[in-house]
Amino acid sequence: MPKLDESLLSDLPPFSLLERGQIRDILDQAVSRRYDEGTAIFREGHDADRFYLLLDGYLRVIRSTEGGEEIIVLHISPGQLFGIAKALERDTYPATSIAAAESIALSWPTRLWSEFAETYPGFATESYKTLGRRLGEIQTTLTEMATQAVEKRVAAAVLRMMNQSGRRTEDGIEIGFPITRQNISDMTGTTLHTVSRLLSAWEKAGIVASRRKHVVVTNPHELVLLSGAQG
Amino acid sequence: MPKLDESLLSDLPPFSLLERGQIRDILDQAVSRRYDEGTAIFREGHDADRFYLLLDGYLRVIRSTEGGEEIIVLHISPGQLFGIAKALERDTYPATSIAAAESIALSWPTRLWSEFAETYPGFATESYKTLGRRLGEIQTTLTEMATQAVEKRVAAAVLRMMNQSGRRTEDGIEIGFPITRQNISDMTGTTLHTVSRLLSAWEKAGIVASRRKHVVVTNPHELVLLSGAQG
DNA sequence: ACTGAACGTTGCTCTTCGACAAACTCGCGG
DNA sequence: CCGCGAGTTTGTCGAAGAGCAACGTTCAGT
Prior knowledge:
Structural class of chain A: alpha+beta
Oligomer: homodimer
Strand order of the largest sheet of chain A: 1-8-3-6
């Protein structure tokens, strides 16, 4: 295991208040690992024996029904803690995490979570902030799902990914990780067919451009209108 | 303000580890209040200046869209803490709480949350457990909403309320708070018309019996089948 | 360069469920 | 005891979107 550089953590909120030596200690206890696209970091219901920090890449957090259908609950971007079941006093993971793109994450044994929370100022605070944000996100998704028509939901989902991971290109803003129609339908509770039709229509209207597994939003403003912002 | 009795808290998880004197201190700082059916305890987006404990009654936690539609995110039963935005480092409430039945709640100023969490063993732990459970519940609702047909969602929603608040009667198990078809449709993202049709059909099939604003489940087993447990 | 698998498109049909409409009933306040 | 309003029921209609099917396209691996 190569020695990890302190600059990896020093700018991230959960660690930004700490001194060099403290960060060193934390890093020395961490395991770093790479995950190929499509690999599971952990699975729903399994023992929550470690917690994680995403250094690079993107994750999908999914839940599956007994019927075998999967729905994507949220995405995780670099710099975020995840798998922090312990913060909520759970001993199993409540959902499955899959690498949406090739990703790198640090992890620590669960027992260190309480130790970090007690020892390092701001660590617990930031963890709980993260959870609070996620709870809010999920509630928003839920309300959308319950009240909005499919087209608006899909538009909103694409916008959310764009805002979270978008990077400028010459044509517009590209979603920063590979994504299939099936993935989008799993976020919005619809079918890949319907998503395909919508994206085709939007492509004709000059709102998006999509290649296989990649989506570029060329006219974000129009997409916002479609998403039905303020009705 | 009448002096509150210590037995109010002594059996509840967040306080069960505490001594008599500590509970006295906590109670002396609490404000107790009654809320009529339909009254809001606090509203989404407002300053989270207090946190609460439901002593008696039932609450609906709702979120509303810009379009004015409301959806019910979850229900809260007696003995639960709520409005604990502070635990997630939020300074506004993320949703609105409405009394579903006449209810009584204690409340404390937000700043005491951290104090309680530090001073009283088990208090923070229990708060986070509550949040963890709710996060799980919401995720379940979300997956259901995304993958299940209306009938299954409604069946699941009725079952959930039955399990949470049901009380035995001679005819079956009655949901413990007033509930309209509109309320059920707000939980399941459908219309009151559809819910009315479903309940009528179930009534004919001998699965439920409903009077105005009240629902009794007469054949829970059949309802579980309808909810599509294990496909 | 070839092949198969994964991903995407499109047309058609069929069902579910939302929208609109109208009437009924229960329970409360005057 | 009456009238009003909130809650409920039931019917009809139409549109949104799921299901099914078939085909096209891109890519990774050999």
